[in-house]
Design brief:
Elements lengths: L5 E7 L6 H18 L7 E7 L7 H14 L7 E2 L1 E3 L2 E3 L1 H13 L3
Length: 106
Amino acid sequence: SRRLRQICLLINGGHGITDFDKAMLSDLETRLSEQKGTRKHVPVLLPIVTKFDTLAGGEVMQEISEGLRELAPTAEKPIFCAIRASLVLGVTDVQNAMAGVCLEKA
């Protein structure tokens, strides 16, 4: 069937969670939460943190993960990804997440 199944929100890991990201997460969380009681199918919110390779260690990743959980508790666990000439991380995870929701039965 034709319906929105997933919303991917890209967050620049090098900048952390910006005020714009917070506003988007809050708005999406509110809208999706409101739909849960009235609609059979509600899109999944998937945060994707890009430029993961620019983060200064696991502490920053943890802070971003906790911030996302706080701002959008119903969102999927974030995927951290990075692409450079010598490094490709998280891309397969994003592909699998997208394919997974596309293959779900309506």
